[in-house]
Amino acid sequence: MQTVRKDIHNSEVPVLCQSCEARHQGICGALNGEQLLALSKATRRVRREPGEELIADAMPINAFSNVLRGVVKLTKVLEDGRQQVVGLQFAPDLLGRPFAAESRVTAEAASAVDLCVIPRPALESLMKDSAPLEHRVMMQALRELDEARDWMVTLGRKNAAEKVASFLFMIASHIDPTDETVASKFDLPLSRADIADFLGLTIETVSRQISKLKADGVIEIVNYRHITVPDLARLRVLCG
Amino acid sequence: MQTVRKDIHNSEVPVLCQSCEARHQGICGALNGEQLLALSKATRRVRREPGEELIADAMPINAFSNVLRGVVKLTKVLEDGRQQVVGLQFAPDLLGRPFAAESRVTAEAASAVDLCVIPRPALESLMKDSAPLEHRVMMQALRELDEARDWMVTLGRKNAAEKVASFLFMIASHIDPTDETVASKFDLPLSRADIADFLGLTIETVSRQISKLKADGVIEIVNYRHITVPDLARLRVLCG
DNA sequence: CGGTGGATTGAGAGCCGTCAACGGAGGTGG
DNA sequence: CCACCTCCGTTGACGGCTCTCAATCCACCG
């Protein structure tokens, strides 16, 4: 009977959720069929183009979003306009700061992005009832904290060459999470300006360091946005 | 009858916990008398002197600790020895990365520190049973993530003068969480070397910037470690 | 074909790191 | 009580890395 009941539950999974990455590795994996069905009635899928603002800094948070495709950049700006990228989010991350009245970052689509938008009350009431859901949200927060602290080392203690190598290595690892012994080819989800804001450098310095990596044969540049790394281990060494 | 029951519960609060800050603002505030009593049988209070290592990077985590007094610094090092402070923890923060096999930072006593050490199994089993406890742990993780991202802006986009001003302002705010309109006097919990590692600078640059703030009348230096700020708003402006 | 926005490359300046010398506080021993 | 040592912090001189400003290139598009 249990297996039959499980099959029934599976058939309850909303059509849109059935092939959704968030249901496997994302936060929706913590929900049973019934909860998923209820939640899916409140959500909607949207597409956002590069550069579109998803969440504004210091504004009330009305909704959270599962990132289903593309890359979202989280930024902060100083009063005089200096900007810093403080995080990148990939599928199936949850976008939005839980348990805060206002956002503390600006979230912007870095590439074309597909989102599953969850109204704030829907997610917060579900989190109150579902400890597994809250647990998944916490695990993501802890992972983001680890990543932020890793990046603080890069920002504070690495020189420009090491910073750019670290960025490329991080992107390659995210796109292609295989081991370090093979080659890798990928599209950069960020413009030179975004990369500079991520690394605490200027556009010109980023460009010079990328040119140097190309001249040294560490990377090959197909397009401005398309890069191949013949030897990931060699790039890894340059990260400092 | 309810009030009587409550009194009974209060009397169950372990003696050591009764005046403990962690029971009010820290994670123990999520526990009832019974849970607190059970937990207190597994914990022990210890004192650590400045410079003592509390948790080693890449080592298994055997225990968590409530910070009861003093300041703990979290650091990461590159292979060639370059060091970055990635976080500071004050009372009543919980020390230790939950739900990870190994620590990803080194934790070291920056000042004299009092800890309430909680064995790992004790806290993890309690978290499994108590959603409010897990919720508090998550709230701390989210707060630390906010702080880490704030600091990334300082590391990536501020010059040396703004970095040092930001550090002093952050310490003043932590020690003296009043509004910005008044004066503030406090002891620096970190040496010049630690401050440099926190700001991604050298000892010499930190020293020069502190001397400049003194020459400009923004701060007064009583001791190497003891500083007064006559006008916090003026310091705030210098943070960029 | 010219216009536009992003990326690259070059020249010069300025900020901060490096190296070095000096100073002051605290501890120890004669 | 003083001499001495050590550790930490300060100050100075100099050089290099990265920023700034500017020109140019390239891809894309009307």
Automatic annotation (TrEMBL), chains A, B:
Q: Which UniProt keywords apply?
A: DNA-binding, Transcription, Transcription regulation
Q: Which GO terms describe its molecular function?
A: DNA binding; DNA-binding transcription factor activity
InterPro entries hit by this protein: cNMP-bd_dom, cNMP-bd_dom_sf, Env_Response_Regulators, HTH_CRP, RmlC-like_jellyroll, Tscrpt_reg_HTH_Crp-type_CS, WH-like_DNA-bd_sf, WH_DNA-bd_sf
- Identify the residues that the record assigns to the HTH crp-type domain, covering every copy: 158-233
Kindly list the GO CC terms recorded for this protein.
cytosol
The record's section on Pfam families has:
cNMP_binding, HTH_Crp_2
Per its UniProt record, what Gene3D superfamilies does this chain match?
Jelly Rolls, Winged helix-like DNA-binding domain superfamily/Winged helix DNA-binding domain
Q: Show the PANTHER family listed in the entry.
A: CRP FAMILY TRANSCRIPTIONAL REGULATORY PROTEIN, FUMARATE AND NITRATE REDUCTION REGULATORY PROTEIN
Specify the protein name: Transcriptional regulator
Species name for this entry?
Devosia chinhatensis
